[in-house]
Prior knowledge:
About 35% of the residues lie in helices and about 30% in strands. It is an alpha+beta fold. The strands form six sheets. It has a six-stranded antiparallel sheet with strand order 13-12-11-16-15-14, sandwiched between helices.
Amino acid sequence: xxxxxxxxxxxxxxxxxxxxxxxxxxxxxxxxxxxxxxxxxxxxxxxxxxxxxxxxxxxxxxxxxxxxxxxxxxxxxxxxxxxxxxxxxxxxxxxxxxxxxxxxxxxxxxxxxxxxxxxxxxxxxxxxxxxxxxxxxxxxxxxxxxxxxxxxxxxxxxxxxxxxxxxxxxxxxxxxxxxxxxxxxxxxxxxxxxxxxxxxxxxxxxxxxxxxxxxxxxxxxxxxxxxxxxxxxxxxxxxxxxxxxxxxxxxxxxxxxxxxxxxxxxxxxxxxxxxxxxxxxxxxxxxxxxxxxxxxxxxxxxxxxxxxxxxxxxxxxxxxxxxxxxxxxxxxxxxxxxxxxxxxxxxxxxxxxxxxxxxxxxxxxxxxxxxxxxxxxxxxxxxxxxxxxxxxxxxxxxxxxxxxxxxxxxxxxxxxxxxxxxxxxxxxxxxxxxxxxxxxxxxxxxxxxxxxxxxxxxxxxxxxxxxxxxxxxxxxxxxxxxxxxxxxxxxxxxxxxxxxxxxxxxxxxxxxxxxxxxxxxxxxxxxxxxxxxxxxxxxxxxxxxxxxxxxxxxxxxxxxxxxxxxxxxxxxxxxxxxxxxxxxxxxxxxxxxxxxxxxxxxxxxxxxxxxxxxxxxxxxxxxxxxxxxxxxxxxxxxxxxxxxxxxxxxxxxxxxxxxxxxxxxxxxxxxxxxxxxxxxxxxxxxxxxxxxxxxxxxxxxxxxxxxxxxxxxxxxxxxxxxxxxxxxxxxxxxxxxxxxxxxxxxxxxxxxxxxxxxxxxxxxxxxxxxxxxxxxxxxxxxxxxxxxxxxxxxxxxxxxxxxxxxxxxxxxxxx
Length: 815
């Protein structure tokens, strides 16, 4: 029985084929028309009474179009819905194309019907384009597309994603990212998608590394974009994710970037070893997990190797991301030859690069070094490249690159990149080879000029800068030093020999060594400068006698200061050097009346010592005139600007040095610049004990008691026996040979320091007592029990001191 009037059909307003806009009809399960809308009559001309109850093929299908209708029907039944263009016959008998959307509808009585909604093709062009684009995304697009629900489970993926993951498109439905990616990679993607879902902020071309569970050794770089899906009411439906494999593009860009960085990093100096290290640092870990640079033995000496040289080679650099690789790789400086029948030996013999993507056991290495080779393979080493270092037609050495942590083996593109690295480095090494002899000589002089490192000291916190004018000027004559003295005191020194080059460097090296020797004699600053003045005059006479063409030593200056953290006194003297700048803890400048003194080498003119008391946290700045005179300033302008910058505030002395450098040296200075900053510390009163003892026979016993009690307060009972012996011997000597009162002082700070001061100027001597002597063993005993001992002199007094280390308890000898 057929209905004679259209059924009421309902569609959502968002549907492009909604009832109020498009024609609609309903078919029963046998394909008969059971409902027909007014819009359908308007569209095709058929009235309801002409079509209701009749098969759709009889009314609407033109002869010859049955195959198209059958194909659409099959697709509709298989997918429970369908949309597309079909040709139909209107009432006038014309063949027209109509866009159809078919949907399966189940009625209350369980009967099944099919709802058709349609419109003329010219009216649905944009809809068809959109549908075609969407269909293309899921069926033909080379870019991966995945649709995820609000729980971030996959609803649908396209064929590109299916190929990417190695599963069928249907198999992805209901999966999470963690079901087919390694944990860390999937967690990052899900975190980003969760952010898109929660904030609505789209993700655009975010690149990240990922590995598939089915092939965890293959690393891929993917570009991920994502946007949130929601209906017009704002209800969130999920996230659409667009994924593109950009591994090749990323690696090409990375290789280009590595080449640019290598060009900037390799060859910054004319130094063979430095260039080799720069090559290693540029390639690890960017290209390889481990790398070594080996040069034929003549090259580091500045000589040219033989054209057919095969060895020996000197290891110049070795770098690895694995610390344990040191057990396998030859150390830097090692001289060796590679075993025969190995990739490096073939590289040297054939003068060409060698690529071994998979190392499953090299016969040459296994035969020559089985233990080392076994360790390398156990660490995961699986791929090797060897590239010759060749410049101007000469092979200088080779570069070996390994992979152990990254699972991908080396490939031809990696070899090309390694050759580019090696070519750049080889030219720089060859340039450095030609300059090595002169450079090594200059470097040796520079090491003698400046301390290799500034030692930490409990009396001061220090920071420094040494900035040469420029490399072409040669090594300069500026130098500085921080020299530990007895009693926790410290000497701060800055000096300058005018000029540059070998002569200035050699002279300053000798002066610096002399200052160290004089400082350890514990002389007053003015006396140190006086003896240094005599030395300069002697050196000048000696050099003139050896070679009259040698220039005289003129313009050598020095400033020498000694700070005591116990008394807070600072004694200083200068020989023609710029005066120091002292700032109090509040940042205020403190004037110092310090006579300039003559430059070193003039002879016969006195130097004067000025002594001041400094509050804890005071800043002492010592510098060369190159700092003050830079940027065409005069001395007064330079001092004013320096004091302004030093006033800070800054978090550290390093920051202060940097601020001085930035403010006062905007350009490369015309002269060497030296800056030494020291912030004073004060030893806490509870770490110092001082007693005055009368010169009487019981003084030694009294001293032992005082020392024993104080060490017990400090928790240093294990040092009591040794310290009592030292103090007893020193007090006894002072009583016997000095007369007058004696001062005993104990200082605790990393070391336990015993000091005994008296009014005698007699210098004690260590001697070997004979078996029949009743005395003469005191200082020998002190020397055996202490780590260091010595004597220093002050005004109308001398002090004998002895130090014991507190890092390890002393053992009672029982002697």
